[in-house]
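User: quick one, fold this
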Amino acid sequence: MGSAVLDARASRAGLWSNRYLIWNFARRDLKGRFKGTAVGWAWSLLLPLATVLIYSIVFSLFIRISPPNLGNGDPGRYWVWLLVGMVAWNFLLNATTQGIPSLLGNGPLLQKIYIPSFVPVVANTVAIGVQSLIELGILAVILAVFGNVGLSWLLVPFWVVLLLVFAASFTYALSVANVFYRDVGQLVAVAMQMIFFLTPIIYPLTMIPEQWNGIPVRSIVSASPFAEFVTAGRTLLYDLQVPDLRQMMALVAWTAAMLLVASLIARRGGQDVGEFI
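Assistant:
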């Protein structure tokens, strides 16, 4: 009886009540992320930079995609424009693909003691967020070297918070589903590859036709949450403009919707996941 009451009280504890537990999990993930590698945390920069280099060579030299001008009016540089988009995408990709198996990975611990199911997932998102903030800081330095700095940067923290909450909520919903249906992780990995090419990351949104066989392709692509976050980040950091009201409302709406879904799952299906691992 006492154990049931304790579990009920723990299940009502929210993110703030479990903040120290989440941070301890995140610290553990951060310490083990590049453990045993020769260059350690340098991989968090080398991997995305290598990706940017490869895509820059392919799409600026061979396919010849011309980026828009910088927000300060200087000629655009494709690798800088690509890097701005890749920072947001890499965070979403890593948070999702690495966060989905986090419940199964912590299965033995969840079976021994009661830990809210969202703790490992949120902690994983926080750990990847710390890594992405380092990338974002280097990106800010690069943009500053080109003199591409503006007041729109003041809204970047707001964009980062929405991105973090959306990613954590989205990943938590998928991680719980993965406990009951182990194919979810594999399906999402394939889906994320498709979403990457359907999101205007390596090409501008204007390259997508507005209509195709009567289907409003551009509107559909631009309305996805991945496209909304990537383009909003570019608008703030690269274009030095504030996203229009529609896009700001879309970011808030997508984040609120995913947070609601995650909350419902945590209350109804996420409390007893340890029994199914």
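User: anything notable?
Assistant: Confidence is low (pLDDT under 50) at residues 1-12.
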